[in-house]
Hints:
The protein is α+β, with helices and mostly antiparallel strands. The protein has two helices and eight strands. It folds into two domains: 1-55; 69-199, no CATH class.
Amino acid sequence: MKPSSNPLAMISLLLLLLQTSLQAQSTSDSYKAYVESVQTERAAKDAEFNNPGETPLSDDNKLHFKGLNYFRISDFYRVVAHLEIYEHPDTIRMKTTTERLPLYLVYGKASFNLKNRNFTLTIFRNVGLMSKEGYEDYLFVPFRDETSGKESYTGGRYVDARISGDSTIVIDFNKAYNPYCVYNSKRYSCPVPPAENYLPVKIKAGEKDFAH
């Protein structure tokens, strides 16, 4: 087939190719900025752990700390989930690694697709934080998955999220982190992810198990 000799058709084709190229570049730049922001957060956390006045590490763990270990950052594990907000949410006392039973509001249920499979996670709000400045829209997502007890911490990990104002929630597993009791079980009491928040899939994102 011969190329079109219609000047307007050629111009339209060139404009379409330019638009596609610019969109691809914009997406690439956006993802690069996202990766850099996650890396910056991880570096800041390592600095915090190395700071004697801020570190959650036990004395023994301070001696050998060389930085936290993470899975590779992947946009695949940053999901936008549908959020069903409960109209009349229950308030529960969540089990922890100690006898402490903090109050949590059962805020709703998030549904999402990952690896061509559908999953759900119960979303919570910490009652003690709901009126604290900076935490008015804070959501708590504790979970376990098939990496728990292998590549990641046995007791599960947490993801922080925010109320979006609509029926969606961003769950960024690249920012999944270990509970502080991993680093110092005598000093911290940590919520235990409920059984309903076990994901029968490998979430190879976020923080790995702590190397003692």
